[in-house]
Amino acid sequence: MRHPARLGVALTIALATAGCSTAADGGSKAGAKPAAQAASVTSCGRQAAFAQPPKRTVALDQTSTETLLELGLQDRMAGTANLKTKIPAHYAAAYAKVPVIAPKIATGEQLRAATPDFVVAGSADLYTEDRAGTREELAALKLPTFVSAVDCPQQNPAGKTPFELLFSDYENLGKVFGVEERAGKLAAAQRAAVAEAGESAAKIPRGADRPTVVYLYSVFNGMPYVAGKTGLPSEMSRIVGAKNAFDDVDEDWPEVSWEEVAERDPDFIVIGDLSERGRPGDSAAEKRATMTAHPVISELAAVRDKKILEVPGIELDPSVRSVHALGLLAKGMKDLGYVR
Fold first, then answer.
1. Nearest Cα to 324, choosing from 312, 336, 334, 332?
2. Structure pTM?
3. For residue 201, what pLDDT is reported?
4. Domain map of the chain by residue range?
């Protein structure tokens, strides 16, 4: 993280929780249920039932891997795949215990070779015929699967926010693995962090318009990719009293033009730093350089007046890390003068 911030008590608790979930307990201590006790959860429209907690789980992406590590479940993991950025230092020892079955997206052959008894993914698109296999195919092999509730809009209860859906993932996985106490503490700490960040909205002067923000995720082939209506940044904006300038685009991360960014003329810009991913246009420095060199974007007040915040790019997608980016956003708005 480029610019660590002093956050309040609740967010500090949430980050401390993220830092202490190392390999020591293996998910088998506090809150664990007897191995013979059955569990059942519904995930993205499919039921996953277990006679006992899984022992050989495969996580198909970094998001689900870090969630399982946060819950202390590394000793029950048979594999991980699709690492996009470096694993945080506080997960390193636990992550070292988990076999990497594929550096990128896992295939069905790689998944089956790991002989899992449970498969977890942050997004439904990892379960396709040309990837790990469809959930129907895996069910026919009596292999239960899990998808983050955040990626299941049709099956979600009405009115549940993306953060609440994320926290429901922790609680459902806690139930499956018999670590309800740890999952409950994690969800509670992160709920407190969200509530604290939300206090910013109450401190925006009465009568003031909500400041608008553009989230610049990536620049690919010279074109900007920004947060649209369905991505987590729109919810982050709402929580802290801002407005996503591209809330009218019904996508997570649409490609737009620089001219469209200029037309929205945001009050401030949030850059997602994806330096560790290493593609052209991923680093915060490259994004800044592109904007300052652009004949139109360089004239925007947000760029001219350096009203630019940087957050780790991976934290702008729903994950166990996202409350940290939310805290940086809340603090950044205060530093920019939008909050009393």
1. 312
2. 0.86
3. 81
4. 9-190, 204-335
